[in-house]
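Continuing the series of single-chain predictions for the mutant panel. This is the parent chain; the variants come on the following pages.
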Amino acid sequence: MFTLKIFWSLVIGILFLPTVLSAANGDSETIRVAVQKGKESIRINGVGLVAVDSYGNSLSVSYPLVVKKEGSGISAGGVFLRSLKVTSSGFVQIDGKGYRGHLEVYPSEKGLLVVDEMLLEDYLVGLINCEISSQWPIEAVKAQAVVARTFALFQKQSRKNLLYQLESTVYDQVYGGSDIEDSRAARAVSETRGEVVHYNGKIIQAFFHSSCGGHTEASHNVWSVTLPYLRGVDCTYCMQSPSVLWEQALSPKKIENHLRAVGYNVTGLEKIQILSRYPSGRITKLEFVTAKGNVSIPAVAFRKIMGYGVIRSTDFEVKLVDGNFVFVGTGYGHGVGLCQWGAKQRAEEGFNYREILSYYYPGTRLVSYYSE
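Parent structure:
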């Protein structure tokens, strides 16, 4: 089972991995992204598709091709396989959604795993409109392109021996395939081609979030790891964010069920108390008061347990109203690194992407990753 303890140990381990710049070529630098996980079946379609099995043998199949999880392998058009690779000179569709590069399908413990291997720069174009809007000021879009490239290359190095290097969800960076690419996203990627954020000879762990609510957070306060370029900075630029203020009502029973599911013995919840806060205003630890005793839980753990879209940040107040716990907070995300809505406002005020990045990642500089 993937527990909180395992999750945080992996995060901390990744943060300490050394990442060194290497000679690379933008026309060959690829990234492997898990674009589907857990589905029992998928539908593959496209034009000019070529399918091969795990041994590299060509397969004679018709499209649309239905692929299912079958025992320890997969079934593709009724043929049992260990894995499947599908390539195209254009796009491959999975359940109607387009992807670049080539797609590989594997059996997993829960359903199918679909990995898309594509050029890194193409990946970035398809990522922009998942993370922000390409219609934002172009300097903010360019800042996002650089940060996403930096994050992807760090993860590629740290996960180089794994089947894929990135999730396509909020656990890494949100990627939605080729269907949402547009010219402004392509422009931002092209005009920052190969640029990464660099600190003391290494590619940084370029964390980012939606809105900080007034002050970004130091990495130590979220993951107990001190990184000099991830210290909190004042940010009054994200006040236009739709999540600058948020409210969420949760029943005691729902909170209890979520906490018990991950091993916290919370029954008969009567009160939630804030024990301490960091200087940024974000909560350090919460205490859950029950008839059988009190349970203390780190605020970052509580947010993950309840869902990142439910408890949007750890900067909140909580009170009991008409039998429900009402959380009223500010900001969206962990608060570390680049504040996306802050970057938008700074770009609107005339700052370029280099200035934006140097503000949110103090002491860093931009360098070219590619040798060309």
